[in-house]
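Dear support,

We are seeing what looks like truncated structure output for some complexes. This example has two components. We would appreciate it if you could run it in full and send us the complete token output so we can diff it against ours.
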Amino acid sequence: QVQLVESGGGLVKPGGSLRLSCAASGFTFSDFYMTWIRQAPGKGLQWVSDISSDGSTMYYADSMRGRFTISRDNAKNSLDLQLNSLRVEDTAVYYCARARTMVRGVIITPYYFDYWGQGTLVTVSS
Amino acid sequence: DIQMTQSPSSLSASVGDRVTITCRASQSIRNYLNWYQQKPGKAPKLLIYAASSLQSGVPSRFSGSGSGTDFSLTISSLQPEDFATYYCQQSYSTPQALTFGGGTKVEIK
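Here is the complete output from our reference environment:
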């Protein structure tokens, strides 16, 4: 069965860095777009970033572009999110999710998220 | 970014009730609208995609409708396990700015 297991969360000071990982199993990882979505404590869901199946194309939310970097290793069935220059407002549970895709024009692009990991908590505080 | 507004933000209902949650987009998103259910301390779960397509394994009491800017999620007969928070999500602006609604919490009356 499909499993996504995040790790790497923790407590970090403002301005610090953290690297999150997501281990995937139960499906052909290299066939799927993957996504990071976060949820601040008591708040709603916010899309963070996604990466194409071959790792060649990445997209970021405006507030995270330049600070966060998404990457993947298809040989290891793993997805990463490097978080730099962290701010208090980045405090959240970070979920990785598998994206189902559609064709829009000439590109393949995320459509909806059919499997999610259990999340990993990142706390940014001094 | 496309703004997604859900209403109500919370509701109280009884087991067996018919419940409808609405989601409005700030511009037309055609049928690029998905619904998720989230229980406390758990990851979201996909219920409906493309506005009205039921995800495999999701009970048929859940249904979705709408297109353009106005959408709804209906639970035909609320069950104890349905008490949760529900989120809509648009993918019209894919591959970027995939925005979610603010959520609707369904509580026991």
